[in-house]
Amino acid sequence: MGKASQAEHKLLDEHSMQASKLTLGQKICYLVNGALIAALPAYAFHSIQHIKLSDNLISHGIAVILTIATLFFAYHNVASVQKRKIYKVRLSAVEESMRSGSKTRSPDFDKQAVKKANEIAAFESVALSLFYNNALFVAIQIVFAFYLFKNWEPQNAYVGSTVVASGIVALLATGK
After folding, report:
1. How many whole angstroms separate alpha carbon 43 and alpha carbon 76?
2. How far apart (Å, rounded) are the C-alpha atoms in residues 60 and 25?
3. How far apart (Å, rounded) are the C-alpha atoms in residues 162 and 61?
4. How far apart are CA 159 and CA 48, in angstroms?
5. Confidence band of 1 (pLDDT split at 50, 70, 90)
6. Cβ(98)–Cβ(113) under 8 Å?
7. In the chain, what are the domain boundaries?
8. Residue 68 in contact with residue 34, Cβ under 8 Å?
9. What's the number of CA atoms in the CB half-sphere (13 Å) around residue 31?
């Protein structure tokens, strides 16, 4: 791609500023995935340790809400960081495919390429963020729940492992 022109840097900066803004679809996706992943440890403890959810509804509710909030934060941070990296890679591929598709170059070719690359980068960054954070949360939660906290009471192990795992995921999401 070579050196980027002043106009390309301006377009890149405009779209990277939009990377931190969440769309309604992203918010819904993050909340639904966060809720599903937060409910997974409750199901595991209910099935394996035979914990009755109704007996400890308040502590389970607090753990689930904290987990959803921290996972939402982690999803957004990882997606924002990855979007810019993915955008840089995808822009050249989008420009190449647009050049091969048409013989003439339209006046708004750069804007169309930037818009399409931005859409692709947004979709891929959300998918990568969900995969990375969910896999990390489940792995950390299993290690804490069934290895490090195995001698704790099942209720305390559930709350502790779930909150600690989501906190570690959120902490790791703040780095670049």
Report:
1. 26
2. 27
3. 12
4. 15
5. very low
6. yes
7. 24-173
8. yes
9. 7
